[in-house]
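name: query_chain
kind: protein
chains: 1
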Amino acid sequence: MLQILKDEIKKIQKPAGFLFGCLLLFVLVFFLYDIPAEPIFYGLFLALIAGGLCIAADLLLLVRKYARLQKLKSDLDGAPPQMPPASNGIESFYQEMLATLWQQRQTLEYQQNKGYTELIDYYTLWVHQIKTPLAAMRLLLQSDGEPDIRRMEIELFKVEQYVEMVLGWLRTEDLSTDLQIQNCDLDKIIRQGVKKYAKMFILENISLEYTPVCRQVITDEKWLLFVFEQILSNALKYTRTGGRISIYMEPQKEATLVIEDTGIGILPQDLPRIWERGFTGYNGRKDKRATGIGLYSSKKILDRLSHTMYVTSQVGVGTKVYLELYRKPLELV
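structure:
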């Protein structure tokens, strides 16, 4: 408070000095013209009293404004502050700046809270999801005789997959620092994903139809592979034993990869919502392992890569996932 009063006194020093100099000049002029001094000093006395009262009134208003600002400072976490009326244009400008900063702060807090809520929701789903393979491995170990090593490898693979999924989810929050857009061999990406899930194909007795596509695409290899693995994982999860998964290029469209399965399909009313975070639909309610995160994160990644994805499905027949990967070649000028 004392510092503010000192600053205010410094502000009025120059105008007060100028006024005092003007008064002295008047006194000198009156003296040179031999005008009686009594009315001069009387007028000077009245002017000093009026000036003192004005300064006292300004200081009182300043003290009140300071007290109100102190209260606003303690209530910054509440509603938007109602600032005291601006006494001049520069104060009005500062108040507009403060209002803008307040709005930006509220926006940042909302985004932070939203991201935190999404993270908590995802981890909650993830914990429930990873419990399934862990419980399966525990049952296999408790069974009589030698545990089924092959089956345990599959359950361990699922655990590893879920760990990779959560790491991928965390990285999708800021892909801009982790993108390497370049010409990529699409067959190389497909083979990596198929090789990773080879044991699942064998164990579930699901056949694979894949003919090399012989196609180069401009994309980020690591993140497109992540998306392909998510789609392949869903196809394996919802395809019955003895079913089939086909991977091929759509002949009617430019650079569009299709992953087709003969699984249980998706209900028509669920199709428009499969990109929503946490939405599992009718199939997800039947399959307690579903989290509704895979397609959501895949869509998010493809949007960053400037690719598109859409799905067609028939219940009891199967599902087709289309990845439109076309992009104009880069031209060096």
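note: Strands lie at 182-185, 207-210, 216-219, 244-249, 256-261, 308-314, 318-324.
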